[in-house]
Amino acid sequence: MLSLRPILPGDNPAVARIIRTVMPEFNCVGEGYSINDPELENMHAAYSTPRSGFFVLAESDGTLVGVGGYAPLAGADGTVCELRKMYLLPAVRGRGGGRQLLNRCLAEARAEGYEKMYLETVGAMEVAGKVYEKYGFHSLDAPMGCTGHSGCDRFMILSFR
To answer: I want to staple 73 with a disulfide (CB 3.0 to 4.6 A). Which of 2, 9, 12, 145 is the partner?
Structure first.
């Protein structure tokens, strides 16, 4: 059984570990990838800002196995949020945790008044891309905003209206 809850300050090391485990699996290392974002060391503080949220997915024993959140898209007009740092450890993929995370992020972003959710990913994350498509995300030809993630090669958006 997987449970979902908002991030707590004590989760920071486990959250960073999950991201640092998953990203290399898809060769997403080096400049231009979220694995190098300064916020990685204190995700709780980074997502304690207005109109943001970050969530952790835990096994029944409390071990964190997945993460994901949303925040305003940097460089946008305030009507668009960005799905950020959504990652699941390999052992829990296919158990519905991704749906739990995505559903929570979408619901909270809508409640915050966002009109659209944007995301950046890489083509190598094929399964994730298919999940996003099932939720109604559409591919864009170019990135939006100023995320600093120049290593990403797939850009998607979902309109809430």
So the answer is: 145
